Amino acid sequence: MKIADNMTPRVPKNSGFSLVEVTLALGVAALCLLVLLGLLPTGVKTQQNSIQQTTSNQIISQIYSFLRADVRLPPGLYKQVCPDPPDPDQSCNWDQLHGHWLQVAQPPDTLYFTQAGKPTGNVNASSTPSDAVFRAKITYNPIPPTGSTSVANIFVSWPAPVDPTTGVPAGSVTTTISVNR
């Protein structure tokens, strides 16, 4: 029988994990998973804010392009809207300026945009369009027509139904642009 005892392999007594070690490892893994799941809502909210800020910056760029196209005239714009030489019997045709650059008391233009940054509704609409997500207010700071630059402040906020003059929007982006004519 001695020969048979020598043939069986010896198994060390300390091989494998104890129940306590497995329980501790699962506890640490569960704690890490809970921390990651706790950060998930914050990450989603940050991503949504980032998307909205990016879209609002695209809206500002779009508005800048519109305004720049409206006043893409060489310095001396007044010569194109007023008779040259000046005629006291003929008034200037300032209606050609779609950006209201010359009207100091002009209330801000309000524009509405969808989630994709596309214009919706009418300028200065009395009510917010149902598909509007962003509200843009353009305030003009005119320089006399003999100047070479016009300035506008653009304030984009979201959600669109919240008027920033009476409520607090969830987010906003503000910029001042200068359009060289």
Major β-sheet annotation:
5 strands, antiparallel
Average the pLDDT over all residues and give the rounded result.
Answer: 78
Poorly predicted parts: 72-76
Find the structural class using helix and strand composition. Answer: alpha+beta
Give the strand order, joined by hyphens, for the main sheet.
2-1-3-4-5
> What percent of residues are in strands?
15-25%
What order do the SSEs take from the amino end to the carboxyl end, as H and E? Answer: HHHEEEEE
Distance between the termini: 109 Å
Give the tally of β-strands.
Answer: 5
**Which word captures the global form?**
rod-shaped
Topology overview:
Blueprint: H1 2-7, H2 19-70, H3 78-81, E1 109-113, E2 119-120, E3 134-141, E4 149-158, E5 171-180
Antiparallel strand pairs: 1-2, 1-3, 3-4, 4-5
Q: What attributes characterize this protein structure?
A:
alpha+beta; single chain; five-stranded antiparallel sheet; 3 helices; 181 residues; 5 strands
Outline of the structure:
With 181 residues, the chain is of the alpha+beta class. The protein is 34% helix and 19% strand.
How would you describe this protein?
With about 180 residues, this protein is an alpha+beta fold. The protein has one domain (about 20-180). Helices cover about 35% and strands about 20% of the residues. The protein has three helices and five strands. The chain has a five-stranded antiparallel beta sheet, with helices on one face. A hairpin with a 5-residue loop joins β1 (about 110-115) and β2 (about 120). The longest helix is centred in the first third of the chain and has 52 residues, at about 20-70. The N and C termini lie far apart (about 110 Å). The model is unreliable at about 70-75 (pLDDT under 50).
